[in-house]
Description:
The chain is of the alpha+beta class and 153 residues long. Helices cover 33% and strands 22% of the residues. It has a five-stranded mixed sheet with strand order 1-2-3-4-5, sandwiched between helices.
Amino acid sequence: MTSEIEIRPLRRDDRAQWEALWQGYLTFYEQTLAQEITDTLFERLLGEGYHDALVAEREGKLVGFVHYLAHASTWAIAPTCYLEDLYVDASIRGGGIGGKLIEGVYAAAEAKGCTNVYWHTHHDNHTARRLYDHVGTLSKFVRYDKRRWEEPR
Length: 153
């Protein structure tokens, strides 16, 4: 029998468990961030009007999170919502938790008056894309990045 998953807002007392999941997320994407960035992010997630976070909890243990933010759009009067980070503990992926977290973002975005939710993933993240193909529509847009310290080619 599978225990119930609760999707709820992140709380300050979730810090240690959230950070362990956050580090797993960064490892998955082969990233290393300064502790100051993680500390600042956590405070933003708890603050009003910037980023928001939901967590998936099972039997008192956090097993996933999603970070998102509502923002103004140049193409609509109503805001839009960017789902920035989604992570589920690797040992329990495929059980519907990612979908429940996305549904939580959909509900939060609707409550904020957003017209849509969008996100990015790596083109070769096949596991995530199987889920995304069921809960969203693949866009034709291509993303470009330029870090301020990089020279253009």
